[in-house]
Write a structure and sequence with these properties.
single chain; alpha+beta; five-stranded mixed sheet; 13 helices
Length: 606
């Protein structure tokens, strides 16, 4: 029989947790008579709000595993959070929910992180040249001054500050203005005029243009050279004009400004990035900016806002310095360090609080991880519920312990159809389907042909299979775990992210797959599988009338037989039929189709 093995494996994956129900039986009759009735006094022993008189709570057994206190209060449904690439808060939310060994975010040797601060030099500093005509600008040789004098004497001219720092006024002589601030220029000249002319004199002075400063930029920059700018332009302006620092070789923390062969300032760009501290000191004509070689750096990733190569300064580069620069997110609890010491591989793993004293070395790879399990997990509830949809509960909480505190309308709820959706099961189903698709595609592509006719058939098969694989890879498994069978609910321990689905009672049976018109048919107590298929227009020419899957509301899947009882809310999936003579890979295709149908409740056609 086709695919029996795969059907058994998938059924075991989905129904194994239900086996625990035998240890914690639940009588269906007790659901209506009050097993798990609301506690008296308006609350529950565990702090859960009690259901109202019109509400029925789900069976809880002994209610074991239900946490106490505020940690069990249901919360209002929150809007879904979109994962935005690059957003640190989304990354924190994702990485904090997986174990540390799965948080592998460090770069490969072929794709290292960029240096911290590499995004500084993108032309925004170089594109903001300013002549310096402000009140604090210091006048220097080469500047031009517009001068108007009226009153007892009149004079108008545009004067250039000579190399000695003077402007020349008739009947007054040289007036030194070099070193005078622009805002004080008019008062400064008026003082010299008053010493010569005692009568009424009026003066207007205005600085027209400032003398540009020529600064040399060298060292580890992309375009070393001589660049013009204003005296008020910072080191950032000239570095940007020079194309920025070479990421692989230049230092962002050791930038020198030399004047007449002596170092006058040393700039650390990390201070500007982290605190907004601008590089100090006005540059002068002939100054030289030297970008030094890159210092010891480490690659830092994981739960930090920016994954980058962080450069140390001096000899003391420890964990405290890296933590200050990288600013780990609140979820980070541990640090993994990999590197080399004494020419041998080196690895260490320690809590974040102990990382501050750890001495880092060139080439270390540091990952900030969330490796401290919380005391609570978040479980969601969907479907027929009259209460909240989010429940933060203790890690030891069981399904029946939670169900006992979820109010529902017993007349509208299908209590025997409760099931779980679990993220870990989704990942397992994805791997199973992906492996099956790979083997199917691989078997087609490596098959040899002995004749031209056979080769043509192989080409056609390969095209069809690749198209099928592409469509199948886009399907998303639902991760269903069957926890209810024959009215008994398994008391399994819940996992973080579990979704408890409590379905409504239904009076319809859905028919899909290889039928003429996939649709919902009203349930009839005396109707069988063939009657429901007939209500959907009957089988198509490609239908396999002997292979029909019945998906029950509790997630359980079985193959329809002669005595199969169709229940309200069931889903009938009619599988396609393929001619083994037309396709030599018939068995592989059918196996994949069954796996996809079980995991996604979707029937693909080949």
């Amino acid at each position: 029989m086709i695919c029996v093995f795969f059907l058994l494996v998938c059924a075991l994956l989905q129904t194994a947790p239900a086996a625990q129900a035998a240890a914690a039986p639940s009588d269906p009759a007790m659901l209506q008579t009050g097993l798990g009735q609301p506690l008296q006094g308006g609350g529950s022993a565990s702090g859960m709000p009690a259901a109202t008189a019109q509400q029925q709570v789900l069976p809880s057994g002994q209610g074991r595993g239900m946490p106490d206190g505020a940690a069990t209060q249901p919360q209002a449904q929150q809007p879904p959070q979109l994962y935005v690439p690059g957003n640190p808060w989304n990354r924190e939310r994702h990485l904090a929910t997986v174990p540390a060994w799965a948080q592998r975010v460090s770069p490969s040797g072929q794709d290292p992180f960029p240096p911290f601060g590499a995004n500084l030099f993108q032309g925004y500093f170089a594109g903001t040249y300013y002549e310096g005509l402000n009140a604090d600008y210091v006048i220097m040789p080469g500047d031009r001054v517009l001068l108007h004098i009226w009153g007892a004497h009149t004079y108008s001219d545009t004067l250039m500050v000579d190399q000695q720092g003077n402007i020349f006024l008739p009947e007054v002589g040289p007036v030194p203005v070099a070193g005078v601030r622009n805002g004080q220029l008019q008062g400064h000249i008026r003082g010299y005029l008053a010493s010569t002319f005692r009568s009424n004199m009026q003066l207007y002075a205005n600085l027209l243009t400032a003398q540009p400063v020529a600064v040399y930029v060298t060292g580890f920059v992309n375009r070393p050279g001589r660049y013009a700018g204003g005296m008020n332009d910072s080191v950032l302006y000239y570095l940007d004009r020079a194309g920025g620092i070479i990421p692989e070789r230049g230092s962002y923390r050791n930038i020198l400004v030399q004047r007449r062969g002596k170092t006058v300032t040393r700039t650390d760009l990390y201070a500007f990035i982290l605190t907004g501290q601008l590089p100090g000191g006005a540059l002068r004509d002939g100054d030289v900016i030297v970008v030094g070689p890159k210092g010891d750096s480490v690659l830092a990733g994981g739960l930090i806002p920016q994954q980058a190569a962080y450069e140390g300064i001096g000899t003391a580069f420890n964990g405290a310095e890296l933590t200050r620069m990288a600013a780990p997110l609140p979820a980070a609890s541990h640090v993994s360090v990999s590197g080399s010491r004494n020419s041998t591989p080196f690895h260490v793993y320690l809590p974040l609080r102990e990382f501050g004293r750890f001495a880092l070395a060139q080439g270390d790879r540091v990952e900030f991880l969330a490796d401290k399990p919380g005391e609570t997990i978040m479980v969601s509830v969907t479907g027929s519920t009259l209460g909240g949809t989010r429940y933060p509960v203790k890690r030891s909480t069981t399904l029946r312990g939670l169900l006992g505190h979820i109010p529902v309308d017993a007349e509208l709820t299908n209590l025997s159809g409760i099931y779980l959706k679990r993220k870990t099961v989704v990942e397992l189903q994805k791997k199973v389907i992906a492996d099956a698709l790979y083997r199917l595609e691989h078997s087609v592509l490596i098959t040899t042909s002995h004749t031209a006719e056979e080769a043509a058939i192989r080409v056609r098969e390969a095209e069809l299979v690749q198209n099928f694989v592409q469509r199948a890879a886009n399907l998303e498994p639902d991760g269903v775990v069957v926890v209810t069978r024959a009215g008994q609910t398994a008391d399994i321990i819940l996992e973080d992210g579990d979704e408890v689905v409590i379905p409504l009672k239904s009076d319809i049976v859905q028919v899909a797959g290889e039928v003429m018109i996939p649709k919902a048919v009203v349930y009839g107590d005396k109707l069988g599988v063939k009657a429901y298929v007939a209500g959907a227009g009957g089988f198509t020419d490609r239908a396999d009338t002997r292979n029909i899957l019945v998906v029950h509301p509790n997630g359980e899947i079985q193959r329809a037989g002669i005595e199969t009882k169709v229940l309200p809310g069931d889903l009938l999936l009619v599988m396609p039929r393929y001619d083994a003579k037309a396709f030599q890979i018939f068995k592989d295709i059918v196996q994949v189709l069954y796996q996809i149908a079980i995991a996604t409740r979707v029937v693909l056609t080949f």
